[in-house]
Design a protein that fits this description.
Layout lengths: L2 H34 L2 H4 L2 H28 L5 H4 L1 H32 L2 H8 L1
Helix pairs in contact: 1-3, 3-5
Protein name: G-protein coupled receptors family 1 profile domain-containing protein
Keywords: Membrane, Transmembrane, Transmembrane helix
Length: about 120
């Protein structure tokens, strides 16, 4: 392979990868929504935490990737011309994954505390 074909391959991968991530990520989030909105899981606090985590992942994926695609591949100058949107996007792309992770931690804590024999014994006395 010569340097030109490597550059073309890199450009193609860089162009196609966000679309693949967007499609597969949205499919995964929709599958999570369908799973965690089932009747048994809606009544479970752990299922609720995972549903909220999937929701924040969905919002992050769509806000982050759509705006990245718009600016890098379609020449949108919204990030450069609107300081409020630029700061809001930076804030959301940092905070939304943190909130999603927090819900997963809460689900883990919920399961850990609900199965702790000491706490179950302490709460039932």
């Amino acid at each position: 392979m010569d340097i030109t074909s490597i550059k073309n391959l890199r450009t193609s991968i860089t162009f196609i990868t966000p679309y693949i991530m967007l499609i597969l990520g949205n499919i995964g989030c929709i599958c999570n929504f369908l799973t965690f909105t089932a009747k048994q899981l809606r009544q479970n606090s752990c299922g609720w935490y995972f549903l909220m985590s999937a929701l924040f992942d969905f919002i992050f994926l769509n806000i982050g990737l759509f705006t990245k695609l718009a600016s890098e591949q379609y020449g949108s100058t919204l990030d450069d011309t609107n300081i409020i949107w630029c700061r809001m996007r930076a804030f959301l792309t940092w905070v939304l994954p943190c909130i999603s992770t927090d819900y997963i931690v809460l689900a883990s804590l919920d399961r850990c505390l609900s199965t702790s024999t000491f706490l179950v014994k302490y709460c039932t006395e």
